[in-house]
Amino acid sequence: MPIYHKQGELPPKRHTQFRKPNGELYSEQLFGTIGFDGMSSLLYHHNRPTMVKEILKSTDVSPKIALEKNIRSLKLVSFNAPAKDDFLEAREPLLVNSDIIIGVAAPRKSLRDYFYKNTDADEMLFIHKGTGTLRTIFGQIPFEYGDYLIIPRGTIYQIDFNTEDNRILYAESFSPIYTPKRYRNWFGQLLEHSPFCERDYKLPQNLETFIDTNEHLMKVKKQGVMHEMVYIGHPFDVVGWDGYNFPYGFSIHNFEPITGRIHQPPPVHQTFETNAFVICSFVPRLYDYHRLSIPAPYNHSNIDSDEMLYYVDGDFMSRNGVQPGNISLHPAGIPHGPHPGAAERSIGQKGSEELAVMIDTFKPLMVTENALKLDDGDYYQSWL
Ligand SMILES: [Fe+2]
C-alpha cells in the first residue's frame, strides 16, 4: 500500500528506546515484504512477538487438483458451495496455479477462537454478502457488500461478522498485490486518470491493544500446510505502528468506470495487479456512445491468460443465463465472446448495471475437485 499510515503511540525516532509506563522496553518489529526492499511497517509490541510455546499439529490444506490441463470453458455455481461455521474450513479452493488460489467461502461465524496468519500469500477477500469487521494487528477495517479487503502476507487477523449469510470470493496471491503501476506517479501517488484515489481507501483504525501473558492459538499457513501454534501473549498487543505495509479496504462501488465512444478493452477495468495476474472491476457504467457502436465486447483470443469472471450483481450483458455468484472460466487457447444474440441485444442500450470481478492469470488455471462439484457441465457449448 503506497501510502503512509500510523496508529497508536510511537517513539520519535525509529530503533530507539521506547518504554512502557513501568520502564520496560517495548519490542520493536519490522514487518516488511520482498526482503528489505518492499513496503514495510514498524510495530511496537507489549510482549516479544517470538514467544512460541508449542507446535500442536500441521495439516496439509493444499487444494486437490482434478483437472491439471483444462481447455473447457466452465460455469461454476458458487452459491452451491456449502456454508460452514469456521472461517477457514469454509474456504473452497476452485481454480489454482503456482501463483494464485481462487476460491469462495460462506463462513457463518465470526473468527474468535484462534488467530490466523497466511505467510504464503497476500489475501484478497471480496465481500459479496455480509457485513462485519476485519480485526488485525494493525487495527480494524469495517466491511460491507462490495468491499475488497487486501491483507498482506504475514498479517495476523481475526474477523467478525454481523451476519450469518456471508459470501466471499477470495484470492491467495503468492506475489504482493498492488494497485496498477500505470495509475501511479514515481512517488506512488495515484494520478488523475486513475479510476480511484487514496481517499477511497479504508485504512485500519481503532487499534486494539490487549496485554496479557496467556496462551493463544494461532493458525499459520506456510507452504500449503496449516500449522497450529500456541503463543504466549495476546497477538494484538501492539501499542503503535507506522509505515506502508498494512491491510486496507476498497469498495468496488468507488471504482469510477472509464467509458468511450467505442468499446473499451478490459484493462480500463483494472483495479489491482501482481506480477502473475490482474484483478478488474466491472461496474455500472454508460455504454459506448458512437452512433454505430456495439456495446457488447468483441470476440477475443485470450491466448496468454485464463480469464475468470465472478458475477456479483445486475444483468450481465454479454452472457445468457448467468446469476449472482456464478463464476465463468474462459481458458487460454480458445477464443470466447458474447453469447448468441448478446451483440445485437446490446445495440442502442444506454448503460449497464452489471457488477463483476475478473481475475486474469498469465499461467493456466488448474481445476479443483471442489470446483467440479459446482460445475454446470455444459457451459462450454453455450455459444452454439
Ligand atoms: Fe474475455
Task: Describe this entry's structure for a reader.
Strands 5-28-7-8-15-10-13-20-16 form a 9-stranded antiparallel β-sheet. A 7-stranded mixed β-sheet has the order 4-18-17-9-14-11-12, with no helix packed on it. The model has no long low-confidence stretch (mean pLDDT 96). The chain contains 2 helices and 28 strands. The radius of gyration is 22 Å and the shape is globular. It is mainly β. It folds into 2 domains: 5-64 and 82-251, Jelly Rolls (Sandwich), CATH 2.60.120.10; 256-381, Jelly Rolls. It binds fe (ii) ion. Fe (ii) ion binds next to loops.
List cofactors, ions and other ligands. fe (ii) ion
Adjacency order of strands in the biggest sheet: 5-28-7-8-15-10-13-20-16
Number of DSSP strand runs? 28
Percentage of residues in helical conformation: under 10%
CATH-defined fold name of the largest domain: Jelly Rolls
Order of SSEs, N→C? EEEEEEEEEEEEEEEEEEEEEEEEEHEEEH
Cofactor: Fe cation
GO cellular component, one term: cytoplasm
Family: Belongs to the homogentisate dioxygenase family.
Keywords: Dioxygenase, Iron, Metal-binding, Oxidoreductase
